[in-house]
Fold this protein.
Amino acid sequence: DIQLTQSPSFLSAYVGDRVTITCRASQAINNYLAWYQQKPGKAPKLLIYAASALQSGVPSRFSGSGSGTEFTLTIGSLQPEDFATYYCQQLNVFPVTFGPGTKVDIK
Amino acid sequence: QLQLQESGPGLVKASETLSLRCTLSGDSISSSHYYWGWIRQPPGKGLEWIGSIYYSGSTYYNPSLESRVTISVDTSKNQFSLNLNSVTAADTAVYYCAGHGALTGSLWGQGTLVTVSS
């Protein structure tokens, strides 16, 4: 199975900060990686697919990059509604796997 | 716009079978764009993929659950289903259905909480 790790697991930031979350895969997954935002009591929301493609309707302050085994999600200027938990997911091979999540909190 | 909706009992007794259904709207379950899958999230924890099915009937399961899981598709009703047998308290979770593809990411239903009671 492909293991995904995320760093940091928790981060505290101010509104307006630039935030970067890293997802590392235990083996190469091409660009078959997605990023999700989840707020309490809600389903995960797709932000980025194919490592860097912005899902329709997602603000342009969200961006993704990377390939192979290392990927990043960047929030260009953190907004109040961005405080949530973020997960990466690899879709290269079955079993599909998720990272453990990064919780972004208000400083 | 693809939309998915889970349905099924919110309470299941230990040792019995958890059965959920996912109904699609906005696309055909026979679409070649997606696999149709189930993911769960225990309270306060992360996401765990359970398994997926392609419209052709090919299935893929999480090895940790494979012995207890069956996913099936009903193309006439535009639905797919999850059966998880011999449940325990550890299976208490929010269960999500989703459509996913390697280059599309996953689009999720709203989720349904299933509690396993003793």
About this structure: Chain A has a mean pLDDT of 97. The longest strand of chain A covers residues 19-25. Chain A has no helices and eleven strands.
